[in-house]
Amino acid sequence: MLKDIEDSVKLAQTGLPNADAWMDLLRTKVEAAAMNGSDMGALEKLIEQSVKELARPILRYGAQLVADQQQMRCPHCESELLVEQHQRKRTVKTVFGEIEINRSYGRCKRCDKRLYPADHTLGLHDHAPASPRVQEISSLAVLRAPASQAPEDVRRMTGLDIGPTTLHREARRQGDRALRLRDADVALTDTLKGVNALSKRSQAPERPFTLVIEIDAWHIRERDCWGETEERRKKGLEIPSRWHWVYTGTVFRLDQRGKTVSGRPFITERGYVATRQGVEALEKQLYAEALQRGLCQAQSVLVLADGAIWIWNLAENRFKHATHRLDLWHATQHIWAVANDLYGSDTPEARQWAHERISWLKRRKNGVLDVINSLHEIRNRLDDLTSKQRETLDGQIGYFDRHKGRMDYKNAKALDQPLGSGAMESTCAQYQCRFKRTGQFWSLDGDEAFLALQTLHWNGRWHLLFPHDRKKE
Length: 473
Known about the structure:
The model is unreliable at about 1-15 (pLDDT under 50). The protein has 18 helices and 10 strands. It has helices spanning about 1-15, 20-35, 40-70, 115-120, 130-145, 150-160, 165-190, 190-200, 230-235, 280-290, 310-320, 330-345, 350-365, 365-380, 385-405, 410-415, 420-435, 445-460; strands spanning about 80-95, 95-110, 115, 210-220, 245-255, 255-260, 265, 270-275, 300-305, 325. The protein is an alpha+beta fold. It starts with a helix and ends in a 15-residue tail after the last helix.
């Protein structure tokens, strides 16, 4: 009995709840709910809320322990801080409810900043009430749906009442952090030491492998001069475009491709890149991601894309020694354009002519040269061509001549390499599911931050923002 009293006194001094008393109370609540006919969902919510009530003071106790033992050193430069105040109170919104902690702060002479070392260790941000788990939940929720639509789902799944403004603010805060991480990786590509550091992150196998890089772009809608269209039109001013390019890439090893039982292709792991900052920004980010995916260790590298000039300029500049391949589907569309123009849209003659030349591309060693010769022959042989038909033929001859070094499909098939950029189409579609919704508008600053956050998540580096999420080996 005396020991029980001593234990209770010690427990009270720490501010922690009595687990036995809590369990007895919870059992009573559950029995009452069960006798009143509650379903399992109601019982789950009852128990969940009771667990939070128990966990909240325990979390407060643990957080305060961290704060109390924190050394007063700058978390950035490790300099000793000039202490200015002890026991400064802070309220934090956690998954168990609000808690208060006391911590000290001081000034770093070297950084010329006033800092709370305990906040940094606990993962708390300046002027932000959210705990790391609430930050994470907010970020994930906004990556799935607009902040205006997410609060109800968050409440139902976690029991947290977080307003749309808070959700957006916390997610944007993490997006800005993701941007800084991304830009730090890009900066490493400027030096040989940095390139080596990025390459060491690669989990590439020791056996020879091919690295595949696919590139494309898609549109995002931004709120430029919103509400000013009619006024600008009356004044004769330029009406800004709402749609802007998002330059995108994906990187994976050839051995990371597979198929489901039903035959649907999939990729087990790959890297993502997406930016609104232009082609040059994409080039740097894609290079940084490729290094982390095994670019320096790869036996061969394949760049696969459609016929856009900017893509091949990028590939020549950054991946010059790689194999460059034009997406087969885009090549066949140009053959169909000639067939339909010469023989009529989707006629038997057009289909026969097109299928024959597509077969040349896929099965002949120099199939593209045969296609080019066929087009030249038609251009020179047929006297009754219209000016439009001649123009079409000239354009397509130029297209195939320009890309003839990127159309070795027979050899690609023998090497079991992809002929088309399906992985890139899938990548663009995945981004668009969130960023191109009906009624969805962005700003340049906002879309770049959220693109960086989404990309960090898909690249498996979420733990860089939230160390508590790191998977145990």
